Each structure stands twice: as structure tokens, then as C-alpha cells.
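[Solved] Which block belongs to which protein?

Original post:
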Amino acid sequence: MDTILTLLKSTITSLENEGIKNAKVSAFELLGHVLKIKPNDLSLYSDKKVSKKQLENFQALVERRKAHEPLEYILGEIDFYGCKLLINSDVLIPRQETEILVDLIVKKLENEDLENKILFDICTGSGCIGIALKKRFPKLKVYLSDISKKALDVAKKNAKKNQVNVFFIEGDLFSPFKSLKADFIICNPPYVSYEEFLSLDKDVLDYEPKLALCAKDEGLEFYKRICENIFNHVNPNAKIFLEIAQNQGRDLLNIFSSNKYKNKKVYQDYSSKDRFFFVEIE
């Protein structure tokens, strides 16, 4: 019967042989998940024996990881800005960059009077942005929208899990909002060009939803559509926050070049790469 230590060592080697990045993290997370022990605490139980049933469950998860299924989908849950989120292959895996975006938004909103203010989280996916912001600012009236019914089903579960009261609307960009107008619009849209998509890691290419990743016009399609249609859906002095690809900062400044927009700014992530765009309505 394997001990935790021998099982971890053999699994890490096995995952590395399949070209899995961060094989050690995957091995520790998966075994911790099966044994219901925090991954960082596994070393405290290194000589503990693993039962046959536990070994079978663990090996089944490892086989999924060896096939490059993302660790987050296998575990089915992720921590995001103070929220516990359920995720599956119907939604993108929330990234650290998106947590940075939420933090930027929090810093912008914490000095505002949010009474009766409305926020749209468009292309919401798992609901991570809108749910995190509603949790931080309960006074906000938050709408989560997505073209994917399956994504909205995940977002609804996450809202319930995090005990926030938000509204859900299914549809493409602004179309489902009709006469509704927002004070804040957040969007992490598809922004990968179809050419770039083919060069993505196998974990992303084979498992994450293409609908939520790819956009026409070299990845700029949704930003242009937002720019063209936003004025029918915002209140005066509305603030817009967008996540972008690292090579799109200059493009966003050009797209939102009209003098109807003010305080335009591109923000960087922790790697000093352009990753977020902020603009206000004149």
C-alpha cells in the first residue's frame, strides 16, 4: 500500500513525463482533494498509508490531468477574490489577471456613493467579477449577462453559493438589457484572435470554451461593438472597465478615441503587460 510520500513522488514524475506544467502543484492538489487534507499539509502525513479506494479515486483524477484537463476543472472549484466559485468546462477558468481587474475596480468604487447604482457584468461566464463586486459592495444592483445559457447556469450556482442577490440576463452583449442603463460596465470579453487560438496550450485549446475565448477582427470585435453601442445603455458619467490582451492597449485607445470618452487609461498586470482598459463617458 502506497504512502503519501511515495505516491506524490511517482505522480509528479508521471505528470512531468506527459508534459504537464507545474506537475508538483497538480499532484499535491489532487491528492489533497481525495484525502481531504490541505495540499500544504500533506508533508505532515508523508508516512500515512493510502487506502485502495482513495488510490483508485486519485489515479482517476491523475489520468484526467495527464490528458491535460485543467486542474481547476478536475477540482471543480476555485478561490477568487474572497469567493468560492464552482467551475466546469462551460466557463473560462478565472485567472489571476481578472482578480487584478476586480481589485482595480474596487479601488475606483470604494470612494463612490453606490446607492441605487447599477453595474453590468457582461460576458460574465462563471460570474466571478460581478459576484465578487456585489459581495464587496452590497448596495450595488448587479446584472450578470452572457450569451451562453450554460455559463449563466454556472453563474447562478455561484451567486447562490456566495449568498449574493444579483440578476441574470441571457443574450449577446447589450441586446438583452433593452432599456436598462448602467453606471458601471465591466466586460472580460472574448479577445483571442482565431490565429492565436491555435497556438494556445493544450489545456486551454482542448477544454476551455472557444465561444468565450475567440473574437473576430484580430480579437478586437467585442471592443468595437461595445464602443458602437454603449451610449444607449449607460447613465451620465458611467465608468467602463475592460480586460484586454497584452498587445491590445494601443488598439483600445484608438477604438475609444472619440471625445465622448474621458480619462482613458491602460493598466498593466503584475508582469507589466497591458491588460486592462478604463474609460469614462463624457
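(Second protein starts here: sequence line, then its C-alpha cells.)
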Amino acid sequence: MGVMKIVILGCGRVGSTMARMLEREGHSVTVIDWNADSFRRLGSYTGKTLVGSGVEMDVLRRAGLDGADAFVAVTNGDNTNIMSVQIAKEMFKVPKVLARIYDPVRASAYHLLGIETLCTTSIGAGLMTDFLLGKEPRPVLDYCDIEAELNP
């Protein structure tokens, strides 16, 4: 795959780390956050940054969502992440979208609706449980179904 145009919503620990990793891989990255101070986490990152809300069409347009290859929402709010991913997918037709969701029940429900989610709560709990019990770790995506396993 060639150079991708990627927009990341949220410049916390995950968003800033992803931005630096993706830029190092040669991709074109834009980071959106409502707090300009968050961009300090980016260090030597040279990509574009934009202050604003990830659920406002104008902000997403200025971030370059038109023509983006991927959009990732990693704010600390599940609702913001889901809304922004739906906007990116439906309004801007971004081919690859991903939302980080903390609530395992929500993540499972949204996944069933065709929205790509990663529930870091389920992944972390599953990995830690397997480690604690001396089990081999499963593939990461297997942990995303933990909520369905617990509530059949």
C-alpha cells in the first residue's frame, strides 16, 4: 500500500502515538483536537494539526476528510468517536474508519451495525486475564468479542 492520507481525531496518548508512528511510516497525517495544548504530545511530528471539534463538518472538511483514505477517532468520549466515524463514513465516504470505544457493550452493538470499533477495555481485560492465567495470548481481534462471550 502506498502513502495514505489519514485523519486522527484526538491527540491524547493513543492519537499522538499513532500520528508519530504513521508519519514515520511515510503517511500524510492530520490530527484534530479541541485543545491546542494536546499537540505538545506530538514532539517532532511535522504533519498538520487542527484545533476543533471532530463532529463539525467544517472542521472535518478543513482536516481533509474529503479524499482521506482513513479516519480514526480516539478521543476519550465514546459518543464523539462514534458520531465522528459515522460522519466520516457516511458523509465523506472515507473507506477505512475506526473508533476506539471504552464501553464493551456499545462496542459490540456498533460493530454489529457495521462500524469498525476497537474496545480497548475488552482487549486489555482479555490480554491481562490470559497473561494472569498463563494462557497464550489470542489474536487481538478475538478479544473484541469478549462481551458477546460473557453475555450469550
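Accepted answer:
You had them paired correctly. Confirming on the second one: The first helix runs from residue 13 to 24.
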